[in-house]
C-alpha cells in the first residue's frame, strides 16, 4: 500500500497534526503574523483529533467521541487567548478550561445533572488548568509522549493511543515556531492533555488507567525540578521523562 492508507491507523492523526501545524507556521512566516504562529499548535490539535474519529456533535455515545469537539473548543480558547491584553488572555484561558471540563463531563444543562456532574467537572477543570499552567516548552512534548506510552501500555479499548499521538504530533509540529510557551499554545495543549488522560479513567477506571494518567502529570509537576539538577543540555528532556517513569512502570505492574 502507498500513500495515506499505508500509515498505521494510530499514527494518522499525528501525521495530520504535524502537517497542519507546520503549514500554519509557514503561513505565519509568510504573512508576518505572530498570532497565527501562536495558533499553530491549536490548529494541529484540532485537525489531528478530527482526523482520528471525525466530529461527533450533540450527545456522543462514547467518551472518546467527545475529544474532537473538545479540540475545537480548545482551538476557540486559543484564538481568544491570543488577544493582546493580558487580562483577556486570562479570561479566555479560564473560560476555555471551564467549557472543556463541562463538555467532557457530559455537557449537563439541567440543575440536577449539573449537580451530579460537578465533582467530575471540577476535577477535570483543575487538571486542565494545571496542565496549561505547567506545560510550556519542552516539558509539554515529554508529557504527551508519556501519555501516549501510558495509554498504550494500559491497553484500554478505544482510540486513546491515536489521540495521544495526535497531541504529540501537534506539539512537535508547532515546536519550530518557538511558541509553546504562549498562552495560545499552553491553553489548548493543557485542555487536551488532561482530556485524553481522563477519558480512560472516566470510562474504565482501571488502576492502570490511573497510572497512565499520572505519567504526564508527574512529567509536568516534577520534571522541571528534576531537570534543573541535570546537565543543561539534557535536563529539560530527561527530567520530565524520569519523573514520568515510575507511573509508566506502575502501568506495567497494574495492567
| Discrete helix count | 10
Element order: H for helix, E for strand = HHHHHHHHHH
- Low-confidence parts: none
What is the distance, rounded to the nearest whole angstrom, between the alpha carbons of the first and last residues?
34 Å
Major sheet details: none
- Care to count the β-strands? 0
Q: Report the C-alpha radius of gyration, rounded.
A: 17 Å
Averaged pLDDT, please? 91
SSE-based structural type: mainly alpha
Percent of sequence in beta strands:
under 5%
Describe it.
By secondary structure, this protein is mostly helical. The chain is built from ten helices and no strands. The protein is 76% helix and 0% strand. Helix 1 (9-31) packs antiparallel against helix 2 (34-53), helix 8 packs antiparallel against helix 9 (207-227) and helix 9 (207-227) packs antiparallel against helix 10. It is globular. The two termini are 34 Å apart. 52% of the residues are buried. The mean pLDDT is 91.
Which helices and strands, and how do they pair?
Blueprint: H1 9-31, H2 34-53, H3 67-81, H4 86-104, H5 111-134, H6 138-154, H7 160-174, H8 183-203, H9 207-227, H10 235-254
Briefly summarize what is shown.
The protein is mostly helical. The protein is 76% helix and 0% strand. The protein has ten helices and no strands.
Spell out the key features of this protein.
single chain; mainly alpha; 255 residues
